[in-house]
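Our preliminary data section would be incomplete without showing what the modeling component actually yields. Below, a chain of 228 amino acids is followed by its predicted structure, encoded as tokens that our downstream tools consume directly.
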Amino acid sequence: MILYKDRTDAGKSLAERVAQEVPDPVRPLVLGIPRGGVPVGAPLARLLSCPLDVLVLRKLPIPGNDQMGFGAVTLGRMVLLNQRLVDLGYVDPHRIPGIVDEVYREVLRRNRAYRGDRPFPEVSGRTVFVVDDGLATGYTMLVALDFLREQAPERLVAAVPVAQANAWELAGRKADHVVCLHVDHGYSFSVASFYRSFPDLEDQEVIRILESMPSPARASADHRPKHP
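Predicted structure:
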């Protein structure tokens, strides 16, 4: 089922729905989960005339299957595991610390590439929209919401174009509100299947989108990574 031409197309539709479901946000802030959540979040930030920034975190990939994750780790090294997958033997528990270390190094690298020396934006007292291009297991979004909840936002909203039903339900337990254009109840689910064009994004594309936003807090070109 193809619903969107690309991530930008999905983001425009999502922005319209958010405006309907979350009127009058308080000092709104849009945080895209890179890489895919950034182009989806940009139309929302433009519609709300608010900053777009990144919430850098990454899923913990199952060995031999990079497309499937058994959890996620944040910039603050907060780790959330999908214990069911661990218990089912998808990953050897003894390998988890090493996988976390490797993924966390990439989280730090991406944060430097996208943000440079800029601090993480203030969250307290704001309506914060956490945007991704879709929820499969949902654990990346879950750990993002946990990370932000500790910083006392006024309201925490998860916003995605598509989600698997179980992931959508899990996100609803942690967010104050979930905006999702399509909740899929099928057994087999792939975020990419809902997009006609769903390329892997490079760091430079994320930085280009961030720099295109009308905000003085955007990173300068000096912070571009020399290698993707």
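The beta strands are 29-32, 52-54, 57-62, 65-74, 79-81, 127-131, 155-164, 177-184. The domain at 7-211 is CATH 3.40.50.2020 (Rossmann fold). Preliminary results of this kind motivate Aim 1 of the renewal.
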